[in-house]
Task: inverse folding
């Protein structure tokens, strides 16, 4: 039988470092069933029978946030054999708050006080025996970053699991509160596992909705318990939830003053505080922040990332592999359709995916560096005020920024946003930022049709920012997204030098998710598109003008006429752009007779005849703002964890892309190219007015809003 | 009654009462802000909001709007 050991602790306590140390390459990252919270587990090095289950970083076991609910459901429902509670020794009071709750679960537990090296450096002393005696379990020390103590903690946890040793929970509650809890324990004693009795009793005292619901109590019993609780509330002149949290912290304060000797004077500055004096300084914060973001972007997208991507695309795939494969297949006398399938479909498809990888690795490397060092929290702190204005949190900045590299990691990065509405809106909007594939479209179109203008390309960035901002404001006026802004209560963890190993693991985990997911989807899509563009309805191999895809494109061409490119080629390019955005250009090139491996100049010549300048511009706008490539769409659907929301997001993006493209073409033609003010322009004006109203109207009354207003009155 | 939102940078106050309800209030309490807790207002973000507080030995950021829920003395 496998031994399951759960890792529990606050965010930023070093849990992930410990998890990486204990499991290394055996770790598996997925999702907790039904939710978008990441689930990580792995096997302990050298012990085939020990599973280490990482739980989301949490501050408490309250019923209010997704991470907390996932963690407590696991701990109470699946009952691991032991818990290693990682406590940040430099932050011990707040960390012990969770500890007191974990100790009530009736599961063998070992406490590992992490960052012990920093504790010693600060001159603080922690009396482990005293701590352990009060909390009812063994306490060890650890420095996960240095790799010390982690294995020992795991060994102790295994021993505790094998002995099934559950310590006596700490005596946190006093007098009448303890009395009331004991009463409740009696009342429900037949209904739950004896190990969980105490936990449930306390939850019922607090009025925890989820616990109450899961127990299915008779209304009699509920009333009985409620009576006890109300008596206590009256006596203590406070509500049940506050009573419990106050008593927990009061207990911890007593415990800490008995077991911990702090050297640091109150009011003195830690080194993190000193760094923050510069980094979140009123004057320097924004310039420093801009500098950091620019550096990250420059290295991962422009210089190193760009060169590596170009090399993979042009040299490795464009030249070596494709050329090599083509000659091998030709010499083997393989049928042309199979050659085509392998070289253009499969290798082309795989090449597209792998072309993203260098930039992705670099972006994730920097993101991990920022997160693990602690700077990311400062980003949210600095940016919050701006983003709050349009219904997002400061943490939404990062997905937006990452979206300038690739929409797939951007959507995944939205996981750090706890509030579901903020998260949904961020996922929906972050792909409006031009990703590196979309930049190919921007580059090609501007080089071909607007070669003497230097402002068109950058203006696309400003346009996308404007679209995001106005969308946020407009969406906030709807009844779903409206209402009070979500609480922004965030810890600013101490800075520390991130471990290279940790950063690399982090980077690799996320990139691998992309490669696997993107790999399968893009690959399939490329093969499908290859098939549709090389075969006619009667399944004979033809050139693209007679293919199924051309048929579909012709049928759909009228849709794009108001946008200035109502030809089947334009339609086909838009469809193929959904496979991978830069395919828009590639497809146009192929459709206009440019060979697959021709250089940029040939491509430009090939597409120049396809559009008018205005049509090209609106083609570009459509591809920038319609739904992102299919991999990003798939990622959106997964992160939304709701078909309805995935549909809403995609629907919104389709509408936005079409709307903007239409407005650009109609007004652009009128203002810049001397077109008459005809019916197209009238429609454009009407739609623009409607859009303006959606953004400027007063906010819709939300149910929560009116209740809150009534409560205050 | 004075709230945390009205407390200036550099001041140290004690929590008197917590208004509000539900997830926000619970979150604030879970993070260590309970009756009688000492709070030091370290700084304000460059754009004016949120504020950075020192609570029980660590740094916490809180929007002014939520800080209005915390009555202090």
Result:
């Amino acid at each position: 039988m496998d031994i399951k050991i759960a890792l529990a602790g606050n965010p930023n306590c070093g849990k992930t470092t410990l998890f990486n140390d204990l499991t290394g390459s055996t770790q598996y990252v997925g999702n907790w069933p039904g939710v978008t919270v990441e689930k990580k587990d792995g096997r302990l090095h050298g012990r085939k029978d020990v599973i280490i289950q990482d739980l989301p970083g949490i501050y408490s076991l309250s019923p209010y946030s997704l991470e907390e609910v996932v963690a407590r459901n696991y701990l109470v429902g699946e009952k691991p054999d032991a818990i290693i509670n990682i406590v940040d020794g430099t932050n011990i009071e707040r960390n012990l708050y969770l500890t007191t709750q974990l100790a009530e679960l009736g599961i063998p537990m070992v406490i590992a006080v992490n960052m012990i090296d920093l504790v010693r450096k600060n001159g603080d002393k922690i009396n482990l025996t005293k701590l352990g005696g009060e909390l009812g379990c063994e306490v060890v020390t650890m420095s996960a970053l240095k790799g010390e103590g982690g294995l020992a903690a795991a060994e102790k946890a295994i021993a505790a699991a094998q002995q099934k040793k559950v310590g006596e929970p700490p005596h946190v509650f006093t007098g009448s509160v303890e009395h009331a809890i004991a009463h409740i324990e009696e009342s429900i004693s037949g209904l739950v596992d004896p190990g969980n009795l105490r936990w449930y009793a306390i939850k019922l005292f607090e009025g925890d909705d989820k616990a109450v619901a899961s127990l299915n109590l008779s209304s009699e019993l509920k009333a009985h318990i409620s009576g006890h609780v109300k008596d206590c509330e009256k006596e203590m002149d406070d509500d049940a939830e506050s009573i419990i949290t106050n008593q927990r912290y009061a207990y911890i304060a007593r415990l800490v003053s008995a077991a911990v000797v702090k050297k640091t004077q109150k009011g003195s500055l830690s080194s993190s505080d000193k760094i923050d004096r510069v980094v979140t300084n009123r004057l320097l914060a924004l310039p420093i922040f801009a500098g950091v973001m620019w550096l990250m972007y420059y290295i991962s997208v422009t210089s190193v990332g760009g060169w590596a991507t170009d090399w993979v695309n042009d040299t490795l795939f464009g030249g070596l592999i494709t050329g090599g494969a083509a000659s091998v297949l030709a010499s083997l006398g393989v049928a042309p359709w199979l050659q085509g399938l392998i070289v253009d479909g499969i290798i082309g498809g795989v090449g597209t995916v792998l072309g993203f990888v260098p930039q992705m690795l670099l972006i994730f490397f920097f993101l991990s560096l920022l997160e693990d060092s602690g700077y990311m929290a400062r980003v949210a702190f600095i940016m919050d005020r701006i983003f709050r204005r349009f219904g997002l949190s400061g943490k939404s900045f990062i997905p937006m920024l990452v979206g300038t590299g690739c929409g797939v990691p951007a959507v995944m990065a939205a996981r750090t946003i706890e509030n579901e509405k903020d998260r949904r809106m961020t996922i929906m909007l972050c792909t409006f930022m031009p990703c590196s594939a979309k930049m190919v479209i921007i580059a090609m179109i501007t080089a071909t049709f607007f070669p003497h203008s230097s402002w068109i390309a950058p203006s696309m960035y400003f346009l996308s920012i404007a679209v995001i901002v106005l969308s946020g404001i407009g969406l906030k006026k709807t009844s779903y997204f409206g209402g009070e802004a979500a609480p922004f209560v965030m810890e600013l963890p101490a800075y520390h030098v991130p471990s290279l190993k940790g950063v690399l693991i982090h980077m690799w985990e996320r990139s691998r998710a992309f490669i696997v997911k993107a790999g399968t989807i893009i690959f399939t899509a490329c093969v499908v598109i290859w098939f549709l563009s090389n075969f006619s309805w009667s399944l004979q191999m033809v050139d693209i003008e007679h293919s199924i895809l051309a048929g579909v494109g012709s049928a759909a061409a009228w849709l794009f006429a108001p946008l200035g490119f109502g030809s089947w080629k334009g339609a086909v390019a838009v469809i193929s752009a959904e496979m991978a955005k830069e395919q828009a250009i590639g497809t146009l090139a192929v459709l206009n007779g440019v060979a697959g491996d021709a250089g940029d100049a040939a491509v430009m010549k090939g597409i120049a005849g396809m559009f008018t300048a205005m049509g090209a511009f609106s083609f570009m706008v459509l591809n920038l703002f319609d739904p992102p490539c299919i991999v990003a769409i798939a990622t959106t659907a997964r992160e939304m964890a709701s078909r309805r929301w995935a549909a809403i997001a995609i629907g919104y993006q389709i509408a936005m892309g079409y709307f903007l493209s239409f407005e650009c073409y109609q007004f652009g033609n009128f203002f810049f190219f001397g077109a008459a003010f005809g019916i197209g322009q009238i429609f454009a004006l009407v739609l623009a007015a409607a859009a303006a109203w959606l953004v400027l109207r007063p906010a819709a009354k939300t149910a929560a809003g009116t209740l809150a207003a009534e409560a205050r009155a | 009654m004075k709230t945390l939102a009205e407390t200036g940078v550099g001041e140290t106050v004690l929590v008197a009462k917590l208004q509000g309800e539900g997830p926000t209030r619970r979150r604030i309490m879970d993070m260590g802000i309970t009756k009688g807790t000492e709070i030091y207002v370290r700084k304000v973000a460059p754009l004016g909001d949120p504020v950075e507080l020192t609570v029980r030995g660590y740094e916490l950021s809180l929007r002014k709007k939520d800080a209005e829920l915390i009555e202090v003395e």
